């Protein structure tokens, strides 16, 4: 027996680290519960047709994409199977001594999903799929056991894949939240760093003004001038502002201020004109005027910095509120009176950075008011996330031409929520399969095919509603209908 059939091209994964022995010891198969009580002759037949594979840590047992032609029985050690979409550090599943892995009778598995490598020194018995009919004919007691094992596998795989889908969605949202938080936090840190420097300089300027003979009354008038509202500075268009900055730069230079370009924009943005500054400097000694202008500019800049920090802090608070609204952490997992507008707004807010990154637009058309529902708020928000994420993936390649519309309205005893995109659409031949578990048209590693299935189950099974889809090139719509008076109790 050789292990060369497992070896992938050198560019894909490293060569197999495996050694061979004379065969499988029949009694070693009793490590698997499914074979534990078989007769000695039955175990002997299985062992005679199986191959023993011994692997050192890191040794390759199976390769993703290769035909699923083998059943594996763990005899010693541990083998980990990893899928690319989970990242290199997270195994998709692990099988140990006593576990049965790979393809089994009645399984529809066509190819192996994931690369299987030994995590420790491992010994595995490999039994060929081609002999499954003969195996079941010789040992009919195994048939119901394999059926039960297959049912357990399907249940565990569904649970595992649902967890993967949630993790992928959470990863996308987390990246978006981190991006959204990074900008205002950076603005706050930058504002306070600059403010600290300016406060230090401002103290030195007060000393310089006193030395140059500036009177307390003159300083008081400058401070009063700083706090006077001058809204016209914010209303300038780009050309008018540029002209005013140039004029201010020239006047400051004539007034003896070094590097006037560093101060001119602050005065203009605060609404000052050359005439206003000239009038303010009339009572200031000539020697003190450069320091007075710098002192006044530092006060204006500090005010702008603190205003900027306040706005950034408010943005952080908005993002935190959106996250709380999305998770409904203050309400718990149970049913509650749900405002759909709040949940949709919170979900939309968490996708803002991803839409900004793609260039696509997101438009909200939510009727006001919408009737409140007795529902599971966290689960509904998860459903909206899957639908919006699906639409964003569809329009992402379109860049600035991409458009997603989220609508919500009351309709004859129910509330409807629609997520529409102008992506390429879903081929008609595939439209009947979009809600099937594990069905996806995305590239490998970009989805498990459970997002729409989870959304459908949340809408229909958990809330007694309905999720439907229509699709044509440039117009794909997923529409959820939620009844106003009923909530299902089946769960998901």
List descriptors:
492 residues; alpha+beta; five-stranded antiparallel sheet; 12 helices; 16 strands; 44% helix; elongated; disordered C terminus
* Unreliable parts: 1-21, 85-89, 444-448, 486-492
Q: What fraction strand? A: 15-25%
Q: Which H/E pattern describes the elements?
A: EHEEEEEEEEHHHHHHHEHHEEHEEHEE
What is the CA-based Rg, rounded? 34 Å
Q: What sort of overall outline do the alpha carbons produce when their principal axes are compared?
A: elongated
Class per helix and strand makeup: alpha+beta
Brief description of this entry?
The protein is an alpha+beta fold and 492 residues long. It contains 12 helices and 16 strands. Helix 3 (142-211) runs antiparallel to helix 8.
List the helices and strands and how they pair.
Elements: E1 18-20, H1 40-48, E2 51-55, E3 60-62, E4 70-76, E5 78-82, E6 91-96, E7 100-102, E8 115-118, E9 122-128, H2 132-138, H3 142-211, H4 216-227, H5 238-254, H6 261-269, H7 274-280, H8 289-327, E10 336-338, H9 340-350, H10 352-358, E11 361-366, E12 373-375, H11 377-395, E13 403-410, E14 414-421, H12 451-460, E15 466-472, E16 475-483
Parallel strand pairs: 11-13
Antiparallel strand pairs: 1-2, 2-9, 3-8, 4-7, 4-9, 5-6, 5-8, 10-12, 13-14, 14-16, 15-16
Helix pairs in contact: 3-8, 4-8, 5-6, 8-9, 9-11, 11-12
């Amino acid at each position: 027996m050789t292990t060369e059939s497992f070896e992938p091209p050198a560019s894909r994964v490293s060569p197999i680290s495996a050694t061979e022995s004379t065969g499988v010891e029949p009694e070693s198969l009793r490590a698997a519960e499914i074979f534990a009580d078989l007769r000695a002759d039955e175990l002997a037949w299985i062992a005679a047709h199986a191959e023993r594979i011994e692997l050192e840590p890191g040794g390759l047992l199976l390769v993703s994409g290769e035909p699923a032609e083998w059943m594996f029985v763990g005899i010693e050690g541990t083998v980990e199977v990893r899928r690319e979409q989970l990242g290199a550090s997270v195994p998709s599943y692990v099988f140990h001594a006593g576990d049965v892995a790979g393809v089994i009778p009645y399984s529809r598995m066509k190819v192996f999903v994931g690369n299987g490598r030994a995590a420790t020194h491992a010994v595995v018995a490999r039994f060929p799929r081609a002999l499954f009919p003969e195996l079941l004919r010789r040992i009919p007691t195994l048939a119901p056991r394999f059926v039960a094992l297959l049912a357990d596998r399907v249940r565990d795989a569904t649970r595992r894949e649902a967890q993967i889908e949630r993790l992928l969605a959470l990863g996308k949202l987390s990246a978006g939240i981190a991006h959204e938080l990074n900008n205002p936090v950076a603005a706050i840190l930058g504002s306070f760093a600059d403010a600290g420097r300016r406060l230090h300089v401002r103290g030195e300027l007060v000393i310089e003004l006193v030395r140059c003979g500036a009177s307390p009354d003159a300083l008081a008038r400058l401070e009063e001038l700083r706090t006077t509202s001058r809204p016209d500075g914010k209303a300038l268009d780009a050309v008018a502002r540029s002209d005013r900055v140039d004029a201010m730069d020239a006047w400051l230079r004539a007034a003896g201020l070094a590097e006037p370009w560093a101060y001119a924009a602050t005065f203009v943005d605060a609404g000052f004109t050359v005439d206003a500054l000239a009038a303010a400097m009339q009572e200031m000694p000539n020697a003190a005027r450069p320091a007075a202008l710098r002192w006044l500019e530092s006060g204006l800049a500090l005010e702008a910095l603190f205003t900027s920090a306040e706005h950034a802090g408010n943005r952080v608070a908005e993002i935190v509120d959106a996250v709380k609204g999305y998770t409904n952490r203050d309400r718990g997992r149970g049913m509650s009176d749900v405002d759909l507008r709040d949940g949709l707004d919170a979900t939309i807010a968490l996708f803002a950075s991803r839409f900004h990154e793609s260039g696509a637009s997101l438009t909200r058309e939510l009727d006001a008011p919408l009737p409140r529902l007795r529902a599971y708020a966290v689960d509904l928000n998860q459903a909206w996330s899957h639908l919006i994420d699906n639409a964003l993936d569809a329009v992402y390649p379109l860049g600035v031409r991409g458009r997603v519309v989220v609508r919500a309205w009351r309709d004859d005893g129910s509330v409807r929520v629609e997520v529409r995109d102008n992506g390429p659409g879903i081929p008609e031949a595939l439209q009947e399969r979009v809600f099937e578990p594990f069905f996806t048209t995305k590239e490998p590693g970009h989805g498990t095919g459970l997002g729409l299935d989870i959304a459908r189950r949340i809408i229909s099974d958990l809330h007694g509603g309905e999720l439907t889809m229509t699709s044509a090139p440039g117009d794909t719509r997923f529409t959820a209908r939620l009844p106003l008076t009923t909530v299902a109790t089946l769960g998901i």
